[in-house]
Every structure is written in C-alpha cells, then in structure tokens.
Design a protein that fits this description.
By secondary structure, the chain is of the alpha+beta class. The chain has helices at residues 5-8, 10-19, 125-131, 150-157, 170-181, 184-190, and strands at residues 38-40, 43-45, 54-62, 82-84, 92-98, 104-111, 119-124, 139-145. The chain has 6 helices and 8 strands.
Length: 193
C-alpha cells in the first residue's frame, strides 16, 4: 500500500535537515585561543595575549550580516553582549566605555574584526544597544581588557548582559576625548572616511 502523499515527503525533509546542520562550539572560556597571524584586505593581524590591553578608538556594531558563526566557532547571536577584536584572545573580556556618556559595559570577545580603518572593536547589536550607541553606528570608546567575576562571565556566555560598570568620571572622559582627538582614526572619522 503506497504512503499518503503528505507522508511520502517526510524522508526528504529529514534528510535535508540532517545535511544542513552546523556544529557550533559551546560558549565556554577554555581553551583560550590566541591564533596565528592572518591577513585581511592586505593587512596582517597578529593575535597576542595582551593582558594589559587599554586603547582609545572607535567602536562600531554588526548584526545579521556577519554570518551565523563566530571566529571561535560559537553560534553568532546578534542580541548577545559580545564583540569582535582583531588581536585579543578568543574568548576574552573587555570593558567598553562610551566617551560621550561615560557608560561602561562588560563585553565578551568571541569574534574577529573589525576590518575597517580606525575602529578598534565591533559590538553585536545587543552590546551596542546596552552601551547606547546603536543609533549612531560608530562612537568613540575606551576598550580595556579585564578579568571579571565568574558570575559575570557566565551571564555573558549565555548572551545576557552583566551588570553595568560604574560610569567613567567626567575628568577621565575629558582627558580620553582630548587624547583621542589627535589620532589618525579620529581625524579619519571626522572627515567621514
């Protein structure tokens, strides 16, 4: 007796679903991957441990256009509080401070990028929203590598936000903005490049 037409397609659907699976790495903190030097658009990036990383520059954010897998093999989640950096270990944790407002958030780095001149970090849409820069596209920031508590790490591994950090003091923000103002990245951004 032949199968009803509605049931005869079932093996095809199961086969198609089995062929399209992607194996994602779970969001864990070990092993930490530094990686080999790599080249994008003619620029070579050399990943390094950089435990004292502390930089001023521009942050942007990225969303669905990034694909579905991060550089360390995890599933990309646009609403997660995560980011991309060209050289920091994967994963690592940074505090990102918006120099316009002083708002400071904790971000888990699990991807590579940005590969746009002048930017030092790309944030997921969720992180950009938490930092308050989603509507602007790019913003001046301070990015500092940190070693957060396991409780905060666990929240970020799940894609959730860790509690906000204290806002940066106005005097520090003014000094950082002045320091950033003379850099080539800031001058390029002001010129729209």
């Amino acid at each position: 007796m032949p199968l009803p037409k509605s049931l005869s397609v079932l093996p095809l659907l199961v086969t198609a679903a089995a062929c399209s699976t992607t194996h994602y790495r779970p969001a864990v903190d070990h092993p930490v991957k530094i990686g080999r030097p790599y080249t994008v658009r003619g620029i070579t990036y050399t990943p390094a441990a950089e435990p004292d990383y502390d930089m001023l520059g521009l942050a942007g954010w990225y969303g669905n256009e990034s694909g579905n897998q991060t550089a360390n093999g995890e599933r990309f989640r646009v609403k997660a509080i995560a980011g991309a950096h060209t050289t920091l270990p994967l994963p690592s944790y940074v505090e990102v401070t918006a120099l316009d407002t002083g708002r400071t958030i904790l971000v888990r780095i699990n991807d590579r990028g940005p590969f746009v001149r002048g930017r030092i970090i790309d944030l997921t849409r969720g992180a950009a929203r938490q930092l308050g820069i989603e509507g602007r596209g790019i913003a001046p920031v301070r990015v500092r590598r940190v070693d957060p508590s396991e409780r905060d790490r666990a929240k970020l591994r799940k894609g959730r936000a860790a509690p906000l950090r204290p806002d940066a003091p106005p005097a520090s923000l003014a000094a950082w903005r002045a320091q950033l103002a003379g850099t080539p990245a800031a001058l390029d951004a002001a010129a729209g490049r």
